[in-house]
């Protein structure tokens, strides 16, 4: 399945706009990861633990988005938008939305 953040696909025509599809993934971070990230934040640098968790959330959200689009009979999802939110201490949410379409 073709998945893109753009609203068009170069060289391909959208035959049918089917539906908006969305996926929400909530992830918990553990105490050790929070502690290590806090140290990284204090001394500077990147937090590999949180980067890994965000990457995991993004992958799961996109996979679920693709599955929902397939159930609608789509062969592509265009205009994908990813949002990352902190719900509360130790909880992150990844939201993926897009338009399920059939392209020629």
UniProtKB/TrEMBL annotation:
HAMAP family (alphabetical): UPF0145 (MF_00338)
Provenance organism: Ammoniphilus oxalaticus
Name this protein carries in UniProt: UPF0145 protein BEP19_15460
Family in the record: Belongs to the UPF0145 family.
Stored Pfam families: YbjQ_1
High-level lineage: Bacteria, Bacillati, Bacillota, Bacilli, Bacillales
């Amino acid at each position: 399945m073709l998945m893109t953040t753009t609203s068009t696909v170069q060289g391909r025509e959208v035959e049918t706009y089917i539906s908006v599809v969305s996926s929400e993934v909530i992830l918990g971070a553990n105490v050790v990861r929070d502690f290590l990230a806090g140290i990284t934040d204090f001394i500077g640098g990147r937090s590999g633990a949180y980067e890994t968790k965000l990457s995991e959330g993004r992958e799961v959200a996109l996979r679920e988005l693709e599955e929902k689009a397939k159930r609608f009979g789509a062969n592509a999802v265009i205009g994908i938008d990813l949002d990352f939110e902190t719900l509360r201490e130790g909880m992150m949410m990844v939201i993926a939305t897009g338009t399920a379409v059939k392209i020629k």
